[in-house]
Amino acid sequence: MDLRIQQSVLSRRPAAVESGPFILGFDPATDSPNINYATPRPGAEITASDVASLVGAFRSASRRPRLEYVVNCAPALEELLLAAGFTVEERHEFLTCSPESFVSPPPVDGFVVRQPENRAERAAMVAAQGEAFGDAFEVSDADVDRLETLRQQGGFEMAAFASDGPCAGAGQAVPPGGGVSEIAGIAVRAPYRRRGLGGTITAALSRQIFESGADLAWLEASGDDSWRVYERVGFRTAGRRLYIRL
């Protein structure tokens, strides 16, 4: 399971660059460390020299050195990174769902969960996610372009719209690779929480993933409330991931 998750991340790094046993993804449209990060090849032997070369590759690209990876795929790497001055950002457990464990929740009255149909709806989706995560910002064309590119490449997007119009929440999933797709960005704006929308959005994305032929959806939960949401639609704890930066 860990190997499949790690391989799926490797397969979708933007503008991928190799540095020894690492794959770096550099997005020329943004310097966000949440998008520009490295991940190790599963099972590769990694040395302190490899870590030093990795840092140099980030510096050459004018990006902050940062990694995200499944812990069991490189169990000795964290010690090397800490010795090189890296700091742990977060440790997350990830959950997985298969067609066999998937549970479809009932619809939520007063809302429709569907794919956004145009740029205006995609902009509303991005804005809702930003607000829900406590990071309200002015949505740019690049933000909308990124969603449209996701869909063009075979990814999925889903938004919840209230009957009176506003986008209440949203989420997306990356294009499946090796039968695996990651669900991310599940967010519901504060006025619309505790109605089941998070689970409904997650389930709608999971359904699309499985209908595409993939057999494994995965995501990360940030707290007890989100864990319960995901478990209700069939997700189960499967492993751990590390976020670490210099």
Largest sheet: 8 strands, mixed
Number of domains: 2
Shape-level CATH architecture of the largest domain: 3-Layer(aba) Sandwich
**Overall SS class:** alpha+beta
Spatial arrangement of strands, main beta sheet: 4-11-5-10-9-8-7-6
Mean pLDDT: 92
Share of helix, binned: 25-40%
Number of strand segments:
11
The backbone outline, from C-alpha atoms, is globular
And the CATH topology of the largest domain?
Answer: Aminopeptidase
Low-confidence stretches: none
- Number of discrete helical segments: 7
Q: Roughly how many Å is the radius of gyration? A: 18 Å
Order of helices and strands: HEEEHEHEEHHEEEHEHE
**Gap between N and C termini, in Å?**
28 Å
**CATH homology-level superfamily of the largest domain:** Gcn5-related N-acetyltransferase (GNAT)
Beta fraction of the residues? Answer: 25-35%
Tell me, what is the CATH class of the largest domain?
Alpha Beta
Can you tell me about this structure?
By secondary structure, this protein is an alpha+beta fold. The protein has two domains: 84 residues, no CATH class; 129 residues, 3-Layer(aba) Sandwich (Aminopeptidase). The chain contains seven helices and eleven strands. The strands form two sheets. It has an eight-stranded mixed sheet with strand order 4-11-5-10-9-8-7-6, with helices on both faces. It has a three-stranded antiparallel sheet with strand order 1-2-3. The longest helix has 15 residues. The radius of gyration is 18 Å and the shape is globular. The two termini are 28 Å apart.
